[in-house]
Amino acid sequence: MTAAKPFRELCAEHGIAVTHQRQILYEVMQGMHGHPSPEEIYAEVKRQVPSISLATVYKNIHLFVESGVLREVSLHHGSQRVEMNRDEHHHLVCSKCKSISDIDEKVLGVLPKRRKLAGGFLVERYAVDVIGLCANCQQG
């Protein structure tokens, strides 16, 4: 995975004002594994900033996604999920427990880079979901 840039540098690049709450939110997310939901992020951030609201967490996650600081994992996983992994990758999604894990782009084969598709659709990035059963659910 690509080394994370300092928060202030990311904010400057993406035109976001630096605030204490945003910095704590970002740092907490950096320490979380996988693809956390806003509610999971909120539970962790609240430990450091007890006065923070769930609405503030949602608002700042939305700001981070809209500005390109974070990527949003496909919405059809049941709830919003975000990720810190900026490397090109896809997702393995368990149809039973809804867990999401990363799979390197090279494992699935090379997809064409940004180009226009039929109807003039301009590709920004590919996000492939491989749906199946994780190892834990296969055993249970």
Description:
The protein folds into 2 domains: about 80 residues, Arc Repressor Mutant, subunit A (Orthogonal Bundle), CATH 1.10.10; about 50 residues, Dna Ligase, domain 1 (2-Layer Sandwich), CATH 3.30.1490. The chain contains 6 helices and 7 strands, in the order ααααββββαβββα. The strands form 3 sheets. A 3-stranded mixed β-sheet has the order 4-3-7. A hairpin with a 5-residue loop joins strand 3 and strand 4. The radius of gyration is 17 Å and the shape is globular. About 15% of the residues are buried.
Give a short synopsis of this structure:
This protein has six helices and seven strands, in the order H-H-H-H-E-E-E-E-H-E-E-E-H. With about 140 residues, the chain is of the alpha+beta class.
List descriptors.
140 residues, alpha+beta, Arc Repressor Mutant, subunit A, Dna Ligase, domain 1, 2 domains, three-stranded mixed sheet, two-stranded antiparallel ribbon, 7 strands, globular
Q: Note the total helix count.
A: 6
Let me know the largest β-sheet.
3 strands, mixed
- Regarding CATH, which class of the largest domain? Mainly Alpha
- Count of spatially separate domains: 2
Arrangement of strands in the largest sheet: 4-3-7
CATH superfamily of the largest domain: Winged helix-like DNA-binding domain superfamily/Winged helix DNA-binding domain
Termini separation: 32 Å
